[in-house]
Amino acid sequence: MPFRNLLIILTILLPSLTRAANIATISPNHHDLLVGSQIFHPWGFNYDRDYKFRLLEEYWHTEWPTVVADFQEMKALGANTVRIHLQLHEFLDTPDHPNQKNLAKLHDLLQLATDTGLKLDLTGLCCFRKELTPPWYTNADEPERWRIQSNFWRAIATTCKGSPAVLFYDLINEPLVPTGKCNDFLVGHLADFYYCQYITLDQKSRPRDQIAAQWIHTMKSAIRQVDPDHLISVGILPNSTTLAPGQSGFLPATVSRELDLLCVHLYPHKPGKEQDDDLATLHSFAAAGKPVIIEETFPLNSGTEGMRQFLHRAHPDSTGVLGFYWGQTIQDLNAHPSIPNAIIADWLTLFSKGWPS
């Protein structure tokens, strides 16, 4: 082969090979994530809102410098990963038509993450503001709802395919399968937002964990139509270790078969029996044989010292931890003294000490 032709081929192939080398995979021991040949411990933040309780899509068009500054601040605190919560109504104008303006802004976010040296946990299908959820989604039956959700993920994955900025896709935040029937898809109301969703309103005598697995398979298939590479997970509540009534229905042992890794949301208690129970919950997720990330945590119940102990004790069963950052640095928080600001500042100070070893 003439040397000139070889150069042309290499020019075409090298960029795609470089991107592929930076897309996360699972380690041979099924405990860790790899980026290239290096173990990657996700250590970062949920960037779900700002301190004014605004969701990202509500200000990223008009205040992009704020987003850039926040990413730089998270990086300066020692983060390598940021979890983004994508609102369904911001990315679908109708059940079948994606919002191109916000998909373009998502592309900008991928570039910002790359430039800042951060990976993204992209969590989708969020309906945090119930009043903005479209009727065509709220009133959809199960097949139509799953079709709409598939369209959402197909649009997101088309935008993100090949991007080394994406660490993994999180299909939905804190999903639930009802025992019997329920009346409303959106639950989990806290402050201004609804954080949880039922994936169906009617169990119809089906095994709840099988409904969860079928739903994951449907979303995964939509993503894989356009993106064969990025890892896929789900943000699961800790009340998922059995199929008893009141538990989420997303049984780790069942749903892990459709997922590349597991994400659990754990807010630990102070050291003692309750924290031992928190760690037992974490261990039950790890027993499914996939990497486990503590995707949401905060010293709400534990205090800072209790959180420090929890993170060290959780290390054998987890490969990453994501707390919260709401757009204020430690200096900002200390400049406006209050009990909530002091708790957040203490958390950020603990976080800045790095991944527990």
> What's the number of extended β-strand segments?
16
Quote the distance from N terminus to C terminus: 51 Å
**What is the overall pLDDT average?**
93
Largest sheet: 8 strands, parallel, barrel
Q: Work out the radius of gyration.
A: 20 Å
Order of helices and strands: HEEEEHEHEEHEHHEEEEHEHEHEHEHH
Describe the oligomeric state of these chains in a short phrase. single chain
Basic shape: globular
Low-confidence stretches: 6-19
Structural class: alpha/beta
Please report which band the strand proportion falls in: under 5%, 5-15%, 15-25%, 25-35%, 35-45% or over 45%.
15-25%
Strand order within the widest beta sheet: 4-5-8-9-13-14-15-16
Helical run tally? 12
Helical content band = 25-40%
Write structural notes for this entry.
This protein is of the alpha/beta class and 357 residues long. Helices cover 39% and strands 20% of the residues. The chain contains twelve helices and 16 strands. It has an eight-stranded parallel β-barrel with strand order 4-5-8-9-13-14-15-16, surrounded by four helices. The protein has a three-stranded antiparallel beta sheet with strand order 1-2-3, with no helix packed on it. Helix 4 packs across helix 6 and helix 6 packs parallel to helix 7. The chain is globular. About 4% of the residues have low confidence.
